Amino acid sequence: MKKLDDIDLSVEFAGVKMRSPLGVAAQAPFAPASISGDRLAEILLKHVDAGAGYIHTPYTNVELHHPKNKLPTGRFLKAHTPGFGRSGFWVAADSYRIEMRKEESLKMVKFLKTRLPSDVPIIANIMGPGADPEGWANLAKEFEDAGADIIELDVSCPLPATAAGAVESFVSAERIPEHAGMLLGDNPALTIAVTTAVVKKTRLPVGVKLTPETGFPRLIGLVEQLKEVGAKFITSVNAPLSVAPPDIYNFGKSPYPGLSANTISPVVGPWTRYLCYRNVGTISMFVPGIDQAAVGGLVDVSHSVEAMMLGAKICEFSSGTLWKGWSFITDSLNFLKKYMHKYGYESLEEFRGLGVQYIKPADEIDWGLGKLAAKIDQTKCKGCGICANNLCWAIKMNDDNKATVLEKDCGACALCIAICPSDAIELGDAEFPLTEEEIYEQYPKMG
Ligand SMILES: Cc1cc2nc3c(=O)[nH]c(=O)nc-3n(C[C@H](O)[C@H](O)[C@H](O)COP(=O)(O)O)c2cc1C
Ligand code: SF4
Ligand code: SF4
Question: Is 135 helix (H, G, I), strand (E, B) or coil?
Fold first, then answer.
């Protein structure tokens, strides 16, 4: 058994060696002052000091298309669900404004190359010119020449879909705008054409960052084709689209601080994790053999372990570091090492994908009906009555105002466990087990 400090966290991702599997997701800066390559490089190096195993450039397009009069700006809005804690950020922005200028981005890559350890590669996140495969390919080549190690195709930025005319652009592929993002990524034919062209042009490994708007099972067909045309990895996922809630205490106006209008906008943070896991888990199941980067809602130190158990090779932090700062990377690495030490894993491979074998079609699962029942720990029950006030027929409050379960009526659905605020309930063996046939006989027959 290795000592804690001897645990090796290095990983080979898309054929490129990384000192650790945790790093920074692509993050376009939102203010004019931070869009300079020098300043952004300084910020990215802080992530590296905190232990990042790789870094990303923010998305970059071809210079030609950038309107010079649009300065970078955007707006964050705290997403909060009363009683349910923090649920993320809405992020309003015009994609043309926050794009990293190509010259700055290339300059930054060249500079960072002189400063980064050899096992901390640069992933260039590019969003090429619309549906022009050659334009994407040439852009990728420029990043290769500047010293990038990996190319990630951002065909998933949600912001282009928030601009005027987006719906028409999506419907008619000829009208895909120069900033295409998910308008391109949710169109498999265009995504394949762009990926094919980039793979042909560059010697670097090329991967595709998916939009969560391409849902399951559609995404599986897309990933199969991407693998066929030479994509070496898939990144899941970019931010999904939403509309921020109207300010109900201000006549339905914009909830964004200091912003005159509401807008269709991406939402990021904890709940994106469920979309990330959907992609990572199902890609592991249906398209094994392609490397995966997990991103989206990884905001607790344990989340990267979960994502790796679903098959991710590397994990990217975005909201996690926005909320918790660069030290979130250090904390996550420390957690990872301690976790591996405690469970006896000496390398990442030993637990990567371990959870995939347990994902089964719902109609092939043994649900334990008749064999399991809810058990209430009366010492923990606070008598709030929540479990007895919903769909369940089996729970009643007794004279002492404690919840009790009539086991023969318990379907072991575990709703009560999920909602009990006192963690007073768990599933255990039914006292008088029944077969499904015996249960069937108890109920009125249909028709
Ligand atoms: C401010 C900001 C800028 C972003 N810029 C980029 C970008 O340049 N390229 C990209 O592919 N994704 C970009 N993203 C998406 C993130 O990399 C990530 O996929 C998304 O935020 C979901 O992760 P999270 O829930 O941890 O925030 C950006 C997200 C935020 C919040
Ligand atoms: S929800 Fe939990 S604490 Fe509340 S009555 Fe039911 S068992 Fe008791
Ligand atoms: S497990 Fe489901 S059916 Fe059984 S007591 Fe709880 S809520 Fe009711």
Answer: helix
